[in-house]
Amino acid sequence: MKRHLLWTFDRGSFQWDILCLAILAFLFLIPRHWFHDVPDFMQVSATESTSKTVDRNGGAIFTVKLEEPCFFDTDNTREKARLMLEQSLGKPVGKNSRIQPIRNWTGRLIAYAIWKEK
Fold first, then answer.
1. What is the C-alpha separation between 110 and 2, in angstroms, rounded?
2. Of all helices (H) and strands (E), which one includes residue 113?
3. What total of structural domains would you count in the chain?
4. How far is it, in rounded angstroms, from Cα 118 to Cα 68?
5. Which of 13, 19, 77, 112 is surrounded by the fewest CB atoms within 10 Å?
6. How much is the pTM?
7. Same domain for 68 and 14
8. Which helix (H) or strand (E) holds 62?
9. How far, in Å, CA of 71 to CA of 20, rounded?
10. End-to-end alpha-carbon separation of the chain, Å?
11. Please, are residues 77 and 67 in contact by the beta-carbon 8 Å criterion?
12. Cβ(112)–Cβ(94) under 8 Å?
């Protein structure tokens, strides 16, 4: 038992190989969503096009889902997201608002997080 707890096995031994396989299995077979390591504002709703969260300072963060996923973050797609938010809120959003792209696991741009100015 002491030998297993202190791991005194040589590199290249049967026990070492089993440990390496266990580590690789953990890395590649555990689904990513089990860890819940995505901030709230980066979680995109499947049904809603716009959702709101609040940051630590009490500021509003809006997540605006794009109509179609795309690969590139351009000024045109940022402007479309800002206009979608303005339509949803019914009031203007400042042009200097902070905007952050949100991508899915394949790297496609699926939404934007927009911090609304106070």
1. 51
2. strand 109-115
3. 2
4. 29
5. 13
6. 0.65
7. no
8. strand 60-70
9. 36
10. 61
11. no
12. no
